[in-house]
Amino acid sequence: MKKTLAMILALVMVLALSAAAFAEPSGKVMLYSSMQEAQLQAIEQAFEAKYPTVDMEYYYAGGGKLVTKMTTEAQDGGQIASDLVWLGDPSDYEAFKANGWLEPYVSPETDHIAKEYMDPDGYYTAGRLVTMGIAWFIGVEEEDAPKTWNDLLDPKWYNQIIMTDPSQASTTKYWMAAMMQSPKYGPDYFQALKDNGVELESGTTATHNRVADASYQVGICLDYVSANLIAEGSPMMFHYTTEDVITMTSPVALIKGCANEENGKLLMDFILSKEGQEVLVANNLVSVRDDVEMQVDTSAIAAINMEVDYNDLGENLQTYLDTFNKIFDK
């Protein structure tokens, strides 16, 4: 009887150990993202520290290039070669949904994330908040720096403004489309901006660097990229506009038919977790969670956010981009 009991206990222990080993995540996971590489590296290091048997890989490029890459991979019934996608422009994800590229997944980490930051059908969830504002070289006195979008039309900034080409960066594309959609701005604003000599740069990082090296006095820039450069000692400053702030929710989503679905979910859970969001905040990003401490007052920003019609953006984004390109002779 004692032998039988011992054998049973031994068998239970073997089964328990086998189950634990089976439950341990392993393999790899691939992320496509337009987020700055320093932040991606921080996420990679923290994720692999928590899950040392999972190899996280990422492909970093501008939003426009990544959408082109995904489109090429998905052509003729092909498979997108990533498990997750994390871009800056939330309107891109409506097209991804329509194309059948996304797999619904609602992370258990969303209890601390506002429903407004989540797709009602469960296809994507905001992974960070990104806000467009105005950066300037420190040779410009802070009180003289433009404080509104219309301030950029002042002739004193003629030929001294740089922005990223919207066709190359999803965040700038979203900002452009939101401004184009607004009756307060629209195509006339961008014509006036062009007439004031604004120049287009091919990439987000390059745009910010052109302000930091004094090639241009003023830039239409992102909060977190500016914060990164300022923290590194770049001679530039940044502030949000005093009205019509444009904030993007930068969603993360699971790719349909991906090779590593369970690890994709694991990485998405980590990104949305308090631990993952604290990694982002430590790297000058703004969290989507309500239980993460930050220096940025998101409620104050939200109070002056410009209203954006997401349905209109989904339907007319290409039209807005075509209008912009025509204005800028592209």
Within CATH, the superfamily of the largest domain carries the name Periplasmic binding protein-like II
Tell me the total number of β-strands. Answer: 12
Number of domains: 2
CATH fold call of the largest domain: D-Maltodextrin-Binding Protein, domain 2
Architecture of the largest domain, according to CATH? 3-Layer(aba) Sandwich
Q: Give the terminus-to-terminus CA distance.
A: 86 Å
Give the arrangement of secondary structure elements.
Elements: H1 2-23, E1 27-33, H2 37-50, E2 54-60, H3 63-74, E3 84-86, H4 91-99, E4 102-103, E5 125-126, E6 130-137, E7 161-164, H5 170-181, H6 186-195, E8 199-201, H7 204-212, E9 218-222, H8 223-231, E10 236-239, E11 246-248, E12 251-255, H9 261-272, H10 274-282, H11 298-303, H12 310-327
Parallel strand pairs: 1-2, 1-3, 7-8, 7-9
Antiparallel strand pairs: 3-12, 4-12, 5-12, 6-9, 6-10, 6-11
Describe it.
The chain is an alpha/beta fold and 330 residues long. It folds into 2 domains: 26-129 and 249-293, D-Maltodextrin-Binding Protein, domain 2 (3-Layer(aba) Sandwich); 130-247 and 305-327, D-Maltodextrin-Binding Protein, domain 2 (3-Layer(aba) Sandwich), CATH 3.40.190.10. The protein contains 12 helices and 12 strands. Strands 1, 2, 3, 4, 5 and 12 form a 6-stranded mixed beta sheet that branches. Helix 2 links the parallel strand 1 and strand 2. The radius of gyration is 23 Å and the shape is globular. The model is unreliable at 16-21 (pLDDT under 50).
